[in-house]
Design brief:
single chain; alpha+beta; Nuclear Transport Factor 2, Chain: A; 2 domains; about 30% helix; about 30% strand; signal
Length: about 280
Amino acid sequence: MQRILFLIITIALSHFQVQAEEKPNPPALPKEGYYILTYKNYSVNLEIDANGYEVHSGSSNEDSSGQADINYWILPGKNKIKIRLTERKNKQKIGEGLSAEAEVKLLIGQKGQFPDEGLLLNHFQWPKSSDYKLGDWFEIEFNPPFDPPSQLWKQAETITLTKEKENSAIEFAVEFTKVLNTKDPQKILTLIQFRSKDTSEVRYYPYEEAEEIKSIKEMTKAIGSSWKLDTKKTKFTLLCNQQILSITDQKGEHIITSKKGASIPLYLSWIAGKWVIVR
């Protein structure tokens, strides 16, 4: 009887060990790194939005594949990645010729890794594993396992767009353009310093003012004082829980440009009672 009982216990323990081997514990979530979106689309247009920031435009009729580091746009708490697929205009209808497909992955990567080597958080694939319908937005909601280091979300106030706020943002853009055209590195740095420091923090590298001054000098040498501001048809868009204001033209293009083809985006936050360039 004892021998039979021993065999039963032995078999049970062996079964438990096999089950434990078959179901290993999931890997621990990282405490730092880079939130990365990888994407590809064939014979269908793809649009990707991260908390209001346009990662990939849906207006292109070309196939594409790529990746985007979205650490700058990751918020504490709930985050939203939105994806939309649309048929191409003046192109083959879906189902004719090459097969149409699209894929978007949200991963956490570490320094030195290829994007696909990162930890997969979410995966959108069409048409293989989704009942998604063309033209609809597909939303991925997630709470990040860690927040990228940034002072922005602690300091930026929620923006309520009013005519007064819009006018003051344009006044800031006018002043910024004037400062750019002075070619004075120190004055320019004063207006972009928050962005420079926060970008360094988010990207995990030290902020060095001397390097920033050097970069500004190189930029002013190449561009000169040819910066122009176009405020004829401005578009104001709130991003990231209404903590960032993007200012573009109606087509989404930058409104600060130079004769040599360069341009500067305007991402502003309201901090301590004034506009600050933050991204």
